[in-house]
User: Which sequence fits this backbone?
C-alpha cells in the first residue's frame, strides 16, 4: 500500500512534496506521535524514487524536530509540546493560504471579497460543528 | 565522493560534422544521472565515446581512474551497458547468448537472469533476431544487470520498453541504489522517466554538457517569474533565459532567482510571483536558443 503520493512531473522537488505530506499527515493524526514511519527503502521502492530523495525528506524533518531517529528502527514521529505543534500547524496552514491568496489575486478578487468568503466558510464550518454536537 | 567518470575537452565528429566539441564532464560515485538532449544532440555518441566503442578525435576520458582506451579487465567488469539498438550476435538463441556472455565475467547472477527472464516472459529458445525490439532490449538489460555492475549506462532505456517493463526497470534501479552505491547514467528525451529516479540532470546541447546540477536544485532554481504590471526586457532581469511581455505583465524564466534583486523589486512595490517548472519545461527553456 502506498501511503504517500507524489507528482514527479511537478516543479516542486519530490523531497519537498514528501516533507509537506508527512507534516500534514502528522497534523491530521494520520501518523500518531511515536509512530514509526515506513523505511526509506519501502517508500523509495513503492514510489519508484531515488532512496536519497526519501532520506533527504526524512533528514529535513528530523532537523525540524518533526521526526526522531530511533536507533535500528528508523524514523518515528517526534513527541511534541502542544504549543509547538500549534505553531507548526499554523506554519503549514500559512503555506496553503499563500497559495490561495495568489490564486485569488490572479482571479482579480478584492481583499474584501476574499475576507468575506473566508468568513462565510468559517461560519458554515462552525455551524456544521454545532449541529454535529 | 570519488569520481567515476571524468571527461576533458572531448572532441568527436562524424564525416567532418562536429558532434561533441570541447566537452567537459565529471560524474561521481552514487550519482544517478539523467542525460537529456534533443534528437541528434549526440547522447549516444557521448556514451559510446566514453565506453571506447567509438574512437574519439581528441580529449581525455577516464573511467574508474583509468584511461578509457586502456581499461583493466577488473574495471571493464564493473560496467554494464545497454545500447539503444541490439549489438549482440543476432543468430544466437537467447539461452546461448547468456551462456556466452557469462564466460567473460567473474561475477554473474544466475538468479537475477532467471528472475527477469521469467518475469518478462522471454522465450530463451528464440534467436535475438526473432525477438520484438522490446523483448530484445529486455535481454540486453538482463545481460547488463547480470554481472552486477558498479556503473550502469543506459542509452534510451525506455525507447522500446512497454510501461510495465519501464516500471520493472525503475524498481530494479531503486533497489540497486538502495543496496549498493551504484552509479547510473541514462540518456533519454523523455523527462518523466528521469524525474523520479535521477539525482542529477545533465543537458547535452551544441556539443557540450551545457547544464549539470542536482535535480532538486534545478527545480528550485529554474523558475518562471511573473511580474505584474511591469514591462521589463530580458537584460533588466538577472539570470534571465527568456522573457516575454504579455499585456501588462512580464513573464520570465530565470536560471536562479537573484534574491537581492527580488527584494529591491518588492521594495519598489512590484508584485512578483515565482512559479515552479517541471523538468520538461526547464529542458525546453535551456535548449531553446
Assistant:
Amino acid at each position: 500500500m502506498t501511503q504517500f503520493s507524489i507528482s514527479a512531473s511537478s516543479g516542486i522537488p519530490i523531497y519537498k512534496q514528501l516533507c509537506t505530506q508527512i507534516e500534514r499527515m502528522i497534523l491530521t493524526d494520520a501518523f500518531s506521535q511515536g509512530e514509526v514511519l515506513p523505511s526509506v527503502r519501502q517508500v523509495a521502492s513503492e514510489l519508484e524514487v531515488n532512496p536519497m530523495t526519501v532520506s533527504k525528506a526524512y533528514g529535513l524533518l528530523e532537523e525540524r524536530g518533526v521526526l526522531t531517529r530511533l536507533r535500528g528502527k528508523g524514523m518515528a514521529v517526534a513527541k511534541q509540546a502542544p504549543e509547538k505543534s500549534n505553531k507548526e500547524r499554523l506554519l503549514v496552514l500559512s503555506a496553503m493560504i499563500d497559495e490561495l491568496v495568489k490564486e485569488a489575486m490572479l482571479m482579480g478578487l478584492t481583499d474584501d471579497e476574499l475576507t468575506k468568503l473566508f468568513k462565510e466558510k468559517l461560519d458554515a464550518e462552525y455551524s456544521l460543528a454545532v449541529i454535529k454536537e | 565522493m570519488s569520481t567515476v567518470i571524468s571527461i576533458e575537452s572531448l572532441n568527436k565528429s562524424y564525416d567532418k560534422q562536429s558532434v561533441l566539441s570541447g566537452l567537459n564532464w565529471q560524474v561521481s560515485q552514487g550519482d544517478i544521472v539523467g542525460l537529456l538532449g534533443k534528437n541528434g544532440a549526440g547522447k549516444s555518441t557521448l556514451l559510446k565515446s566514453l565506453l571506447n566503442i567509438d574512437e574519439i578525435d581528441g580529449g581525455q576520458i577516464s573511467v574508474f581512474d583509468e584511461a578509457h582506451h586502456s581499461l583493466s579487465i577488473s574495471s571493464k567488469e564493473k560496467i554494464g551497458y545497454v545500447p539503444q539498438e541490439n549489438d549482440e550476435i543476432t543468430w544466437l538463441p537467447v539461452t546461448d547468448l547468456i551462456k556466452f556472455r557469462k564466460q567473460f565475467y567473474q561475477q554473474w547472477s544466475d538468479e537475477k537472469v532467471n528472475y527477469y527472464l521469467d518475469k518478462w516472459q522471454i522465450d530463451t529458445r528464440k534467436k535475438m533476431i526473432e525477438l520484438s525490439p522490446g523483448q530484445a532490449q529486455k535481454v540486453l538489460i538482463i545481460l547488463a544487470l547480470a554481472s552486477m555492475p558498479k556503473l550502469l549506462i543506459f542509452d534510451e532505456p525506455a525507447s522500446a520498453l512497454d510501461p510495465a517493463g519501464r516500471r520493472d526497470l525503475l524498481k530494479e534501479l531503486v533497489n540497486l541504489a538502495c543496496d549498493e552505491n551504484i552509479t547510473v547514467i541514462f540518456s533519454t528525451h523523455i523527462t518523466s522517466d528521469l524525474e523520479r529516479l535521477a539525482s542529477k540532470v545533465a543537458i547535452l546541447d551544441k556539443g557540450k554538457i551545457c547544464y549539470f546540477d542536482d535535480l532538486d536544485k534545478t527545480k528550485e532554481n529554474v523558475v518562471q517569474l511573473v511580474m505584474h504590471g511591469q514591462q521589463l526586457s530580458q537584460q533588466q532581469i538577472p539570470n534571465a533565459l527568456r522573457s516575454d511581455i504579455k499585456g501588462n505583465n512580464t513573464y520570465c524564466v530565470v536560471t536562479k532567482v537573484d534574491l537581492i534583486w527580488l527584494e529591491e523589486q518588492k521594495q519598489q512595490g512590484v508584485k512578483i510571483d515565482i512559479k515552479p517548472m517541471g523538468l520538461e519545461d526547464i529542458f525546453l527553456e535551456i535548449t531553446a536558443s
